[in-house]
UniProtKB/TrEMBL annotation:
Residues 8-529 form the FAD-dependent oxidoreductase 2 FAD-binding domain. GO terms for molecular function: oxidoreductase activity, acting on the CH-CH group of donors. The keyword Transmembrane applies. It comes from Ottowia testudinis. PANTHER family: 3-KETOSTEROID-DELTA-1-DEHYDROGENASE (PTHR43260), KSDD-LIKE STEROID DEHYDROGENASE RV0785 (PTHR43260:SF1). The keyword Glycoprotein does not apply. This is FAD-binding dehydrogenase. Keywords: Flavoprotein, Membrane, Oxidoreductase, Transmembrane, Transmembrane helix. Pfam families: FAD_binding_2. Its cofactor is FAD. SUPFAM superfamilies: FAD/NAD(P)-binding domain (SSF51905). The chain crosses the membrane at residues 7-25.
Length: 544
């Protein structure tokens, strides 16, 4: 059996684990970081992400004359997350999540923006406006982000993680850090009621048992929304009805809740796992790296969102307002999947895939390519999708499109006259211009008032414009678990008594990004990467 000894053990090499290790090295502590994955995947899901963080009252916001404040952000957060007034009282199920929310908005400028920029991380100059709360004529949360506060890293999540890994490798105390990859932690060790280490097996064809001992153990092993999707299905929210058969995996292959169970095994509380941040527009990855590997589209706002029969879903679904509501509405449709119908013009301007892999201009910091894609459309991405995706069909006519949609799905659910009715009705609304009262047209007009959305959203795009029709079959895709291991503001894991378990901490998605679910029912976006960084910082500060 392998045996390891250190002052602090961090279980998990994602963004939270990296930040915690950095901060502990700053304090001169000896750190053992155990990660189940291979060295080339150091950084976890954050490395694959688009790289957006929710930050309040930044220089970038002020430059755009956006008036933001921690008070305003907290009001938006509590409303969007469905926190009630009683959550401010100790003992309430959402007391600790609310405490984390209050501290996050107050500390984000210093602990996220300034901390990252001091370490070589830059941002796109224009904050994006996501999760606004539902628009005209639609359902969902009445209030979300009042102002744009989603700050995208120039370099995506890959650039974010890369900058921090360079800091780690060049750290003056680098010799205090031991990295062990291919180590699957399966349980925690205790002595006299305190957590004093962990145990598990190495990955590979000849697994070897190991134990690691330290007076402080930090769980940073991610959430429950990956693996074989078993826990996603088990904790599926009642609002969403049946779990769709076509559910895709947009989380980590090892995000399977093993360390949640380990924390429970030593008395830790795990809360709010029914709150998940899934997405409505997933397509199968054509180069899968795990079972049911999916890609999350940024759904084109000018596309018609249809159910499995080709009927337009009402109220009209438009992204940018309430992601959770999109999932709720799609799950209520027959068969639990949907279609988006658009043309080539719309797809060129609006179609995007979330993450670093399919945003090379931002990922590789290519300014000319980035500007070209904004002004002329992302031809490379559209070609990739049309060439490789098994969830996309194209046609010149609606009759041909309906036939291809049915052939793809293997049924006859979509009728051409149903598509034609939806398209003709919508195109007639587009022709009315500002006189249209169609909820989708009103939502698009609202979105385009912010320059960041105006650049990426068509003003008045008919569907049947002769440029070629495109239909994308979209599935619900798992992503982030909003609940997790319950922690106090020191990131200490809490027992049912409300007291911290000696020696045990949890950070990042494992802790529901702080407190066992700091977002509440919904996330304003950017609180996920932000929560990983912030909860890791608070844990390291407490351990010092």
């Amino acid at each position: 059996m392998q045996r390891h000894q250190s002052e602090v053990i961090i279980i998990g090499g994602g963004l939270a684990g990296i930040v915690c290790a950095l901060q502990l090295l700053d304090a001169g502590r000896r750190v053992l970081l155990l990660d189940r994955d291979a060295p080339e995947h150091f950084g976890g899901l954050a490395k694959e992400s688009f790289g957006g963080l929710l930050i309040v009252d930044t220089p970038l916001q002020r430059r755009q004359k956006l008036k933001d404040s921690p008070d305003l952000a907290l009001q938006d957060w509590l409303a969007f997350g469905a926190f009630d007034a009683a959550s401010a009282q100790p003992g309430h199920p959402f007391y600790w999540p609310r405490q984390w929310a209050e501290h996050y908005v107050g500390d984000s400028l210093q602990h996220l923006y300034h901390w990252l920029t001091a370490r070589g991380v830059g941002f796109l100059p224009l904050p994006l406006w996501v999760e606004r709360g539902m628009g005209p004529g639609a359902s969902g949360a009445a209030r979300g982000n009042s102002v744009p506060r989603w700050h995208v890293v120039w370099g995506t999540g890959q650039g974010l993680v890369g900058a921090l890994l360079r800091q780690l490798e060049r750290h003056p105390q680098r010799d205090h850090l031991t990295l062990k990859f291919g180590h699957r932690v399966e349980g925690l060790l205790t002595t006299g009621g305190a957590v004093t280490g962990c145990h598990g097996h190495t990955e590979g064809d000849a697994p070897e048992a190991f134990e690691a001992h330290a007076p402080q153990v930090v769980i940073a092993a991610g959430g429950i929304n990956g693996g074989d999707l078993g826990l996603v299905r088990q904790h599926w929210h009642a609002d969403w009805g049946q779990v769709p058969e076509s559910l895709l995996n947009g989380s980590h292959q090892f995000a399977d809740g093993t360390l949640h169970r380990a924390a429970q095994g030593v008395g830790g509380q795990v809360t709010h796992l029914q709150n998940q941040w899934n997405y409505a527009a997933g397509i199968a990855h054509w180069r899968p790296r795990k079972p049911r590997h999916g890609l999350s589209l940024v759904p084109p706002k000018s596309a018609l969102w249809l159910n499995a029969r080709g009927e337009r879903i009402t109220p009209a679904l438009v992204s940018g307002f309430d992601t959770r509501d999109l999932v709720t509405q799609v799950c209520a449709q027959p068969s639990g999947y949907s279609w988006q119908l658009m043309n080539r013009r719309i797809a060129l301007k609006e179609l995007a895939i979330s993450g670093a892999e399919f945003n090379p201009s931002i990922r590789d910091k290519g300014k000319l390519g980035f500007v070209r894609d904004l002004l002329l459309g992302n031809r490379w991405l559209l070609n990739e999708v049309l060439t490789h995706s098994t969830d996309v069909v194209t046609a010149r006519t609606l009759n041909e499109l309906a036939d291809k949609m049915n052939a793809l799905q293997g049924d006859s659910a979509v009728r051409a006259d149903t598509l034609r009715g939806a398209v003709e009705h919508y195109d007639a609304e587009v022709a009315k211009g500002t006189a249209s009262q169609d909820p989708q047209r009103l939502a698009i007009a609202q979105l385009r008032q912010w320059k960041g959305d105006r650049l990426r959203t068509c003003k008045a795009a008919r569907i049947d414009d002769g440029s070629g029709l495109i239909a994308i079959r979209e599935h619900i895709i798992s992503r982030k678990s909003l609940g997790g291991i319950q922690t106090n503001l020191n990131s200490q894991v809490l027992a049912s008594s409300g007291q911290p378990i000696a020696g045990l901490y949890a950070i990042g998605e494992a802790a529901g990004f702080g407190g066992g679910g700091m977002n509440g029912l919904r996330g304003l976006e950017g609180t996920f990467l932000g929560g990983c960084i912030y909860s890791a910082q608070r844990a390291a500060l407490a351990i010092r």
